[in-house]
């Protein structure tokens, strides 16, 4: 969870139009993310006295924190039974995802909170998790069978939403990474197209097994079997889709896709329960490892550029990764030490005396 406290933002300040808003005032995206994280943990139940004290300190530290928290309460408070005890949230969270999504979005629209719901949908992984049909939490890999027979494997902190019709099977990757092994139902025109949509475009399967990873502003695709076609959302008119065959991978932005390259272990190792590190910077590795745990994971700039290689286990399907155990192993390979200031706040810094 991020802890940066911004200066207040004016509603008319340049460049704030895309920021989330609460109480009519633009809120820094990091504050919105932190508020949603606290809100999810609070309503999930099991909040200890110490965690409540930390939440109170965060809430009282800045007016924007309190405003963001109040905004979340105003959106979700209309749901029957949703109260500080968290019972209503747990009931909603445990309901079938599509039903929960319809209830939550329907109530938000009904109370005139569409703007607030849009903020959460666009800005917070927590909201994307609630809005998803299938999801995984920090450190989890989960496997599902979709209604058409496709096998879906989700990596850590991942979420997808389905839109299946009589003519197309469309899956929206809301966040994280997924491995698809497609099924082949028949429609009126033959095999129904299977399309995975991301923020940068979409991937059409051609009878295949492939992975898709949603990054910030970038999508990665790797094909294990068969082939796919990659379509960048804002490619120039007349641009042909990029075909990837088994053993190939690419990355694409909204305007273009990069030429195919050989799919490496790093793209697919997660599906086998591994983090594959090949001469990787420490800060890049910790950014990925941070997806496997809750809380704030920081690296001292003095050691951020250290490089290393290795393979780290992240658990079996439907199991829980022990990211803290991986953190504890780092001093065996690098001149660093790991400091747990709290359960949620970890810093990797230079080892003393080296």
TrEMBL record:
GO terms for molecular function: sigma factor antagonist activity. InterPro entries: FecR, FecR_N, Ferrdict_sens_TM. Gene3D superfamilies: 2.60.120.1440. The lineage of its organism: Bacteria, Pseudomonadati, Pseudomonadota, Betaproteobacteria, Burkholderiales. It comes from Comamonas terrigena. This is Iron dicitrate transport regulator FecR. Residues 133-229 form the FecR protein domain. Residues 33-74 form the FecR N-terminal domain. It holds the Pfam family FecR.
